[in-house]
């Protein structure tokens, strides 16, 4: 069973405020200056004290959490082109921790090979089945991308990052390119796999990294890693439980983790978007796609791509599918994703989202779903039933003011029959729907993974994450330099 939640950590101690030492004029100046000059000097000294007090007080209450930009002119939307946020060192790990896992792709799943899904540096095979659905000139930007490929996508991009440093002793952030999701995932469904199997490669990686002087220098507090699965796959508390225990291993206690689903109560977990099938080659591709999805005539009020959980008591997905069927084809359409039909994107699902105004996003096997990002990429407005599915997950990417780009409907009210999804959505005026769609489309650059770093200074999901990590580490260093505590 997947864990449903984790208890929030106990409250952190309040920060200790470090105030500047008291400044006093020299005795000689006091004895030789005229009275009026002495008064002015004392006033100036007091002003300096007040200024320093305000400066230190303001910094002492800052946090190290990552926050999204809500303004196009905000500094968080400006790419770190001059490396003023710092530099990144990428560890050259022994191949058993990354490239060997890719080479053994036939053995990563007990039922089928994953070689095609992980090909093309994690992008997967080209999405030829989308011909006629997406504009022809943009078809080379579409792939059948595996939802668990973020480790590979990040690794490739960071190897060519303009702020990559060859020297770990001077780098501001150190990246560990371990494919933990593949290492653990290959044993999640193997009938004979043990907890030791799921932990073996993770423990070996930590033994290796813990022997590096650059890691020992900070105990990992300036290190980050991408974990290509949800956080719960790495949080096994007991041997008989689900997943691996990588996150709970002592050497991971200070390392920042980028995940497609985070634990909302763990400050070191940072949510990143699920990889979708759209990987633009350039800023021009992005603008063309945004224009295309904004201009679509959407004839269906809401759509749902998913499958009922047969045998599950009070299955909410099944309830939504029944409501969709009752609403009829003009109001709602559904794509049945049972038996893996929607795995790694399907032409049916893309077509559904392109013609729908809204897309229903109940929780998946965990609280989050890749489908929410597929939906937003297509310019449809997500309808969320669990706040942990979006609002508590992707703070760096999805701005506050959720009502501007999504609709929240309490699942309990839907279950009880107090509200109808159709009635709620049809009550939203066309003008507001248009504004919400524009906001969703505005967010697309931040939630896609470009094939390479995009031109014209456009920031994609990798840029947003890396800049966020660098800002977090810089703020932590500043707080440490002033003697003010911070997150681990």
Automatic annotation (TrEMBL):
<keyword id="KW-0812">Transmembrane</keyword>
<comment type="similarity">
    <text>Belongs to the glycosyltransferase 47 family.</text>
</comment>
<keyword id="KW-0808">Transferase</keyword>
<feature type="domain" description="Exostosin GT47">
    <location>
        <begin position="87"/>
        <end position="420"/>
    </location>
</feature>
<dbReference type="InterPro" id="IPR040911">
    <property type="entry name" value="Exostosin_GT47"/>
</dbReference>
<dbReference type="GO" id="GO:0009969">
    <property type="term" value="P:xyloglucan biosynthetic process"/>
</dbReference>
<protein>
    <submittedName>
        <fullName>Xyloglucan galactosyltransferase XLT2-like</fullName>
    </submittedName>
</protein>
<keyword id="KW-0333">Golgi apparatus</keyword>
<keyword id="KW-0328">Glycosyltransferase</keyword>
<dbReference type="Pfam" id="PF03016">
    <property type="entry name" value="Exostosin_GT47"/>
</dbReference>
<keyword id="KW-0735">Signal-anchor</keyword>
<dbReference type="GO" id="GO:0000139">
    <property type="term" value="C:Golgi membrane"/>
</dbReference>
<dbReference type="GO" id="GO:0008378">
    <property type="term" value="F:galactosyltransferase activity"/>
</dbReference>
<dbReference type="InterPro" id="IPR004263">
    <property type="entry name" value="Exostosin"/>
</dbReference>
């Amino acid at each position: 069973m997947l864990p449903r939640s984790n208890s929030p950590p106990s409250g952190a101690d309040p920060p200790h405020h470090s105030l500047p030492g008291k400044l006093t004029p020299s005795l000689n100046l006091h004895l030789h200056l005229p009275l009026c000059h002495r008064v002015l000097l004392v006033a100036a000294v007091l002003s300096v004290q007040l200024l320093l007090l305000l400066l230190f007080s303001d910094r002492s209450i800052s946090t190290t959490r990552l926050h999204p930009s809500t303004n196009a002119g905000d500094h968080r939307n400006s790419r770190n082109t001059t490396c003023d946020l710092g530099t990144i060192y990428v560890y050259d790990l022994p191949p058993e921790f990354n490239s060997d896992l890719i080479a053994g792709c036939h053995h990563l799943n007990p039922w089928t090979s994953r070689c095609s899904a992980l090909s093309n540096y994690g992008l997967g095979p080209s999405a030829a089945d989308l011909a006629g659905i997406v504009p022809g000139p943009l078809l080379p930007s579409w792939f059948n991308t595996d939802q668990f490929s973020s480790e590979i996508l990040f690794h490739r991009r960071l190897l060519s990052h303009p702020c990559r440093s060859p020297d770990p002793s001077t780098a501001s952030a150190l990246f560990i390119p371990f494919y933990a999701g593949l290492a653990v995932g290959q044993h999640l469904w193997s009938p004979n796999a043990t907890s030791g199997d799921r932990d073996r490669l993770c423990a070996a990686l930590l033994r290796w990294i813990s022997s590096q002087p650059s890691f020992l220098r900070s105990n990992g507090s300036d290190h980050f890693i991408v974990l290509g699965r949800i956080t719960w796959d790495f949080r096994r508390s007991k041997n008989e439980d689900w997943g691996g225990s990588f996150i709970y291993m002592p050497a991971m206690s200070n390392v920042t983790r980028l995940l497609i689903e985070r634990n909302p109560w763990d400050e070191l977990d940072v949510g990143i978007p699920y990889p979708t099938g759209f990987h633009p080659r350039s800023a021009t591709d992005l603008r063309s796609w945004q224009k295309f999805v904004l201009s679509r005539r959407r004839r269906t009020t809401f759509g749902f791509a998913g499958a009922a959980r047969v045998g599950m008591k009070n299955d909410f997905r099944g309830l939504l599918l029944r409501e969709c069927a009752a609403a009829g084809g003009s109001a709602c359409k559904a794509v049945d994703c049972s038996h893996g039909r929607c795995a790694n994107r399907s032409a049916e699902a893309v077509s559904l989202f392109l013609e729908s105004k809204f897309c229903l996003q109940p929780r998946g096997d965990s609280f989050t779903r890749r489908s929410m990002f597929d939906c937003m990429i297509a310019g449809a407005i997500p309808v969320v039933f669990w706040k942990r599915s979006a609002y508590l997950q992707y703070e760096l990417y999805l701005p506050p003011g959720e009502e501007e780009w999504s609709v929240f409907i309490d699942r309990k009210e839907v279950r009880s029959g107090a509200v109808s999804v159709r009635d709620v959505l049809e009550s939203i005026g066309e003008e507001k729907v248009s504004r919400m769609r524009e906001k969703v489309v505005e967010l697309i650059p931040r939630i896609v993974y470009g094939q390479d770093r995009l031109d014209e200074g456009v920031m994609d999901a990798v840029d947003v994450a890396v800049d966020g990590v660098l800002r977090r580490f810089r703020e932590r260093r500043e707080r440490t330099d002033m003697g003010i505590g911070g997150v681990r």
